[in-house]
Predict the structure.
Amino acid sequence: MDVRIQAEKAERFRKLHGGPNILALPNAWDVASARILEEARYPAIATSSAGVAFSLGYPDGQRVSRDQMLEVVGRIAHAVRVPVTADMEAGYGTTVKDMEETAKAVIAAGAIGMNLEDVTGDDESSQVDTEQQVEKIRAIRAISSSHGVSLVLNARTDIYLMPIGEATTRFERTVERLRAYRQAGATCVFAPGVSDRDTIAELVKAIAAPLNILISPNCPSLTEL
């Protein structure tokens, strides 16, 4: 894919996070699902790491290799006209160098953004140290910009989803991490597992950045959000 076209799509996707309408971002796991979503007139599509894993016969949680994941991402990105952002789990590695390689591979696949988690395993002990996650985010932003496509980076914390730590401090820890991720260069931040209307509203105020949540049956409606 032409880098100039990718860069334009990245900017288009970045602007969608600024309104005026809420961005409802559907998930695809193969070309067929992506084309259906495009036909439904969604302005952008995100790949689902769990969906891709399940469709390939793997459980979720970085059981699929980076190459396998990006092969599917590439097929989707080249099959639709709308911007495609890739769920790259925890970046498929632990070092800054790993993040740089993943970011370059995302661009090569034709995607214009990526989702980055801050846990690498199935329990709270696998949560990456905040400063280390900040370094990873900075590296992704720097390397992607140097390759002509400033990736729209959605920095995620799983404090609510897993959940991690004491419930009484969950809000403060989420805010602390997501503020740090935003300051490090994340375009937007992601707090899956939050469904309470008041908590969502307070997170929006406290973080003061585009906030993504994972829609569930317990969430407020899109109109309420």
Notes: The helical segments are 3-16, 31-39, 49-55, 66-79, 96-109, 130-146, 170-184, 197-207. Strands lie at 27-28, 45-47, 84-87, 113-116, 152-156, 188-190, 211-212. The longest strand covers residues 152-156. The chain has a mean pLDDT of 96.
